[in-house]
Amino acid sequence: MQRALWRRRDAAGAVVPHFRRDAPRHARPGARAASSQSVNSSSDVHASPNEGSPGVKGSAGAAPAFPRTPQAPRAAAPTVPFEAAAAAVLEGRSFMCTMCGKCCTMEDDGEVWVSRQEARSIAQHLGMSEAALLAEHCLERDSDGLAAPPGWWLLQSRRSPDGKLHCTFLDSETKMCRVHEARPVQCSTYPWWPDLLAQPGVWDWEKQHICEGLDHADAGPLDKEAATQQLRRAVTHELAKRRAREEGAAAGARSGGGGGGGGS
């Protein structure tokens, strides 16, 4: 799962669980819990009082736990058209940007990824070379030391006088983006991200802690067609980054080294 524009931490400094890269996957519904005992001999297996299948001995009076049995192949989930899925997650949402700049300011490092094409567009907008832009405003590794996918970079963050970190392109005084017309897809599609829309509770958390424009009273009716287009762009952008990371890892494995970074 992609982490949000800026990492979220609670008052104690812990990363908010639903934004963590290592968030545990939910157990598959209906899956049986593995028994704490292993079956090492036939004496460990007995017939359950009410079942015809074998069970694993437990403590006296405890219901027997049954060993795992091969699962029948599960039917593939039905394919849902993108527009229908988008309509479902957009239902009841609204948004109005108040220009507060909070989505670009945080107390922890942010993560805004740009592709080579996006970097070129930003460099052209600023009237500088691509090489200069990458050197002054981009990183090839995130704060965890993870290399960027080949052809991708992470925007740097700067520290403002109040001690908070903000995007390298945010004017800390005016709270305005200096590359707004050429801003990355990740920024221009906010808040229509799959992370915010599809995961239960994330939209409400974002509204409470980050963006006052979510479900704003003055937002007016949502343009669902425009929001669906933005959601599609966000999904396409994320999939392209993941594909680049996978291809970089595969190339690194073939060459006997690690995956390539953004500059490769």
Automatic annotation (TrEMBL):
Disordered: region residues: 1-76, 240-264
Biased composition (Low complexity): 30-48, 62-76
InterPro entries per record: Puta_zinc/iron-chelating_dom
Highest taxon of source: Eukaryota
UniProt biased composition (Gly residues): 254-264
PANTHER family reported in the protein's UniProt record: PUTATIVE-RELATED, YKGJ FAMILY CYSTEINE CLUSTER PROTEIN
Protein name: YkgJ family cysteine cluster protein
